[in-house]
């Protein structure tokens, strides 16, 4: 049982992210139409498509570390997504890249990079848990990964725990009034709708875990 | 979805191509299509503070329609309703810099603020002094700890016009920023939607509104408003928009104001003038003088039917700067 | 029906009230509400040929938006989509008369022609010399014994601008009429509707169009077009409008043309620029030079989504007159 | 059995016209929406309402002759209806007024005033029978009245015959392509739709006959 994950996993995660975002594009648009401006799925789809193009560009050196992969994702999202999600996701991946500077990552490393991502999002967006934003997915995800790491679990287990917590976190935004982002303009009318950024965050973390598990079973 | 477009992915690029072709005497587009911006045809004016604004597309003529003498030096059109990324903002900032620094005029949305912030940092690293003024004139949103703050809406046009005139007369960066801040502080807006709009990439209306319902307190991105009410008469709707503005701004007897009735894109100008008529009467009943007026489609939400009202409290300097010559594709006088 | 109006019966009156209040520096309304017309704030210009146009309302800014220096002297807004009666046309003609005679610019519709004819007779009886130029630039309609002739549509705006400049420079009545006739003879237009419009007094859309259908060859009164086709891309639709124009006008290599893309009221300007972009490319491919451009809502059909393309073949005189200063509520440059 | 009709009939006709146009306003709008611009019912309704106001104005001398009534109708329609129908109906009533200069009208007089009306419409609009306009109602109406007069019938009979012929004439416009007015722009698409002006003409002539018959039965 593998307890570390590396650049292959990170690359696979990115590819799976692009596929998942493409597949869920309309779902994310619809969530954003309800309490925002209807572009979240389009924004991420544009961003991850651009990431794939960069990844497959024969002229650029292939990323050698997990950090390299995240850095490529960070800069590409930053310069193609726009809106609120672009800088927020961009900063998340940038901080995660710094946290994951080795070639491989163990369970503690997963927790570290998720902590770093949360830190980046909060540094830019100033949101707290309960504000009905992507923070509501990332914060419990990081905490869950840390718990697995502290309990001696594998990186893959940490990612799965993070994904599960992120999904629960996303679901927890349904009954909330928003205090950050566009949905905050709606007041009570946001109640009953899921935050699109929290939903996309859960999606990305789920494919992160899937990527780790499939790498593992291939071994 | 019925639109005069080709591929939804190309809407912004093709529209900007047509725009710069039609107004080649006034504007040019940057060379790199990945970093789309529009700037003055003659290049940056040396020694003048540069004004840059931008944001999601779909609000035309804002912002590119206001690039020209006496207003903006460059505008950055993002994807429809999506803030542009830092790269084109940086490129526009460089194009607008005439050595006296650049003012970013940013509508208060999380995405716009974050992307302009990053661009400003990058510009700073390249030795360009940037200041930002964030507009937040929308009284439909409460400015409190529990929201992202008030939105920047139609008042932004007035900030661009008046700050543009200040830059044109030679004010330095701090002075232009002060004027822009003053306009924003004295402007209040509120809007109504009769119909939703359809973002090309989404392909369906941004919200579903019954045949007898309207949305009060909408923004400019097809987002739902503060509340949904039954369709009412133009005069009643005008009161619903104007009252919060007048209250929040504290309009009182003797005030000189600019009354701006803005169309959301799909409302005929005849209806805008019906709104204007009643709003003017109500302001005059409060003892205010409507010293300047602007009526038309200046900051829109694609093909949405609806309107917003903006009241700007004037002082002599703001009035003089508003009256100063302007020559842009969408606003022109005195030249 | 969703509109920012009060009583449908009062739409025109209230809208004109708002309009003259907002543009009091430029225009006034006549005293008698039964004979509604709008004229220049300063009164008739002595010694200058007066220009009067008018027709049904619902096409704003046409015609009242074009009253001012360098364009019309008076405009007569009838009920929505209904030609005004002779009385207000006569009143407007008197208000526009500066002793050098008055030109009536009349769009070719039976009602407009008949009512302006009667008004001209009445004016003649009061000693005012009137000449009329009837515009008929719409190539969607065949001019034959079997129709009421081609309709006057967007080309009318260009006739008003250019003839207005001729009057302003001091041309006499015959010369102004000759210029107006020349503009009309060199202008061709064609329009498309993506959606119908709703006349306030009717309360329902002027025609029913499926979600995937458009009307090609529409007029400006919400009447159905020549044919209904499936929704197509902007470039394809542009070709469908432009080809008959180019053919009928005989645009050929070396021609200097003005390209005018007009919005029907409910179409965002971004889409108009997408149409403009392709139309310009096509004209240039024919070897023509697009020397002047106009893009925007100038002659509308209430809130209809759609557009029309007009091509005017220019000569040096027409270009100079088009460029001459104009200062009206809806068109302004050089002043 | 009355063989002449007078100012009471004319006044009653006008009142009944206003009522009928008000009642059929939407029907005429809908016919005009189909092949025109949807204002015909509104235009006539505005015009006849204004006629009523003038008729009931205590400051103006009440009309003394049939011609006086028609003249009032003519000038009021001319200055309130607008569009194509205003000048056309206005001229029709104006010419009819001149034709009906006595206090009463017999069957020949009815034929004369209908002939005059047709002459007025054609003088202004230059349409012929078959062009799908109001001419298609008025022309057969005048001919039918003339036939009754020539056959020794009463004024009332002449009006009823005119009304019946006008209705048939209006119906005859259904299959036509229009050659005058707005419907001419539609080419073949006008086929299958009734001309609104022909329809309103038939309506007006029907209430003319009704007014004569009710005056008669009241005697
Ligand atoms: N201040 C913030 N902090 C954290 N997340 C935020 C903040 N503001 C917005 N978001 C997230 O961004 C998402 C919206 O992203 P997107 O639709 O792409 O951008 P925009 O709101 O500019 O249209 C929201 O659903 C929310 O999760
Ligand atoms: N040249 C004409 N001769 C006779 N009748 C005409 C002519 N043109 C139009 N009409 C009549 O006028 C009617 C339309 O009237 P209306 O809708 O009130 O005016 P508009 O066409 O100006 O909107 C048509 O149905 C037709 O009967
Ligand atoms: Mg969004
Ligand atoms: Mg957005
Ligand atoms: Mg009409
Ligand atoms: Mg009509």
From TrEMBL, chains A, D:
InterPro entries: DhaK_L_YcgS (IPR012737), DhaL_dom (IPR004007), DhaL_dom_sf (IPR036117), Dihydroxyacetone_Kinase (IPR050861). Residues 8-210 form the DhaL domain. It comes from the Bacteria. One of its GO terms (molecular function) is kinase activity. Coiled coil: none annotated. Keywords: Kinase, Transferase. SMART domains: Dak2. PANTHER family: TRIOKINASE/FMN CYCLASE, TRIOKINASE_FMN CYCLASE. This is Dihydroxyacetone kinase subunit L. The gene is dhaL.
Automatic annotation (TrEMBL), chains B, C:
Residues 7-333 form the DhaK domain. Gene3D superfamilies: Dihydroxyacetone kinase, domain 1, Dihydroxyacetone kinase, domain 2. The keyword Transport does not apply. Keywords: Kinase, Transferase. Pfam families: Dak1. The keyword Aminoacyl-tRNA synthetase does not apply. Coiled coil: none annotated. It comes from the Bacteria. InterPro entries: DhaK_1, DhaK_dom, Dihydroxyacetone_Kinase. One of its GO terms (molecular function) is phosphoenolpyruvate-glycerone phosphotransferase activity. Its EC number is 2.7.1.121. PANTHER family: TRIOKINASE/FMN CYCLASE (PTHR28629), TRIOKINASE_FMN CYCLASE (PTHR28629:SF4). This is Dihydroxyacetone kinase subunit DhaK.
């Amino acid at each position: 049982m593998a307890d570390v994950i590396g650049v292959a996993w990170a690359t696979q995660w990115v590819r799976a992210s692009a596929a998942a975002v493409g597949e869920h594009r309309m779902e994310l648009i619809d969530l954003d139409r309800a309490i925002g401006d209807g572009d979240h799925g389009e924004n991420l789809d544009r961003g991850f498509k651009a990431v794939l193009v960069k990844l497959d560009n024969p002229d650029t050196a292939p990323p050698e570390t997990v950090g390299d992969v995240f850095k490529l994702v960070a800069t590409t999202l930053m310069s193609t997504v726009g809106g609120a999600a672009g800088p927020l996701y961009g900063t998340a991946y940038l901080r995660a890249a710094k946290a994951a500077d080795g070639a491989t990552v163990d369970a503690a490393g997963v927790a570290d990079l998720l902590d770093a991502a949360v830190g980046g999002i909060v540094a830019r967006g100033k949101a707290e848990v309960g504000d009905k934003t992507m923070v509501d997915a990332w914060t419990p995800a990081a905490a869950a990964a840390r718990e697995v790491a502290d309990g001696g679990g594998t990186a893959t287990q940490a990612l799965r725990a993070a994904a599960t917590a992120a999904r629960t976190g996303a679901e927890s935004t349904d009954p909330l009034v928003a205090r950050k982002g566009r949905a905050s303009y709606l007041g009570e009318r946001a109640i009953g709708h899921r935050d699109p950024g929290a939903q996309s965050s859960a999606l990305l973390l789920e494919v992160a875990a899937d990527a780790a598990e499939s790498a593992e079973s291939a071994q | 979805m019925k639109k005069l477009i080709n591929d939804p992915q190309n809407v912004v690029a093709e529209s900007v191509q047509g725009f710069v072709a039609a107004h080649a005497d006034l504007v040019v587009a940057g060379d790199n299509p990945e970093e789309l911006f529009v700037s003055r045809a003659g290049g940056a004016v040396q020694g003048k503070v540069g004004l840059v604004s931008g944001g999601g597309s779909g609000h035309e003529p804002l912002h590119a329609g206001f690039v020209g003498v006496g207003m903006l030096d460059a505008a950055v059109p993002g994807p429809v309703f999506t803030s542009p990324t830092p790269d084109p903002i940086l490129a526009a900032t460089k194009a607008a810099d005439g050595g006296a620094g650049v003012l970013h005029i940013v509508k208060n949305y999380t995405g716009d603020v974050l992307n302009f912030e990053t661009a400003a940092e990058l510009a700073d690293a390249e030795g360009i002094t940037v200041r930002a003024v964030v507009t937040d004139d929308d009284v439909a949103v409460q400015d409190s700890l529990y929201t992202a703050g008030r939105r920047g809406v139609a008042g932004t046009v007035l900030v661009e016009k008046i700050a543009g005139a200040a830059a044109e007369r030679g004010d330095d960066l701090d002075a232009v920023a002060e004027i822009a801040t003053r306009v924003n502080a004295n402007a209040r807006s509120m809007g109504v939607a009769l119909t939703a709009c359809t973002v090309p990439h989404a392909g369906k209306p941004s919200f579903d509104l019954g045949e007898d319902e309207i949305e009060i307190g909408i923004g400019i991105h097809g987002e739902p408003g503060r509340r949904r009410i039954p369709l009412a008469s133009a005069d009643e709707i005008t009161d619903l928009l104007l009252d919060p503005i007048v209250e929040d701004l504290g309009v009182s007897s003797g005030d000189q104001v600019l009354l701006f009735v803005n169309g959301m894109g799909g409302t005929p100008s005849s209806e805008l003038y019906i709104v204007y008529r009643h709003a003017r009467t109500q302001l005059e009943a409060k003892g205010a003088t409507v010293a300047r007026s602007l009526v038309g489609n200046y900051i829109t939400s694609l093909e949405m039917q609806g309107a917003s009202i903006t009241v700007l409290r004037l002082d002599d300097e703001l009035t003089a700067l508003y009256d100063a010559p302007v020559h842009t594709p969408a606003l022109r006088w005195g030249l």
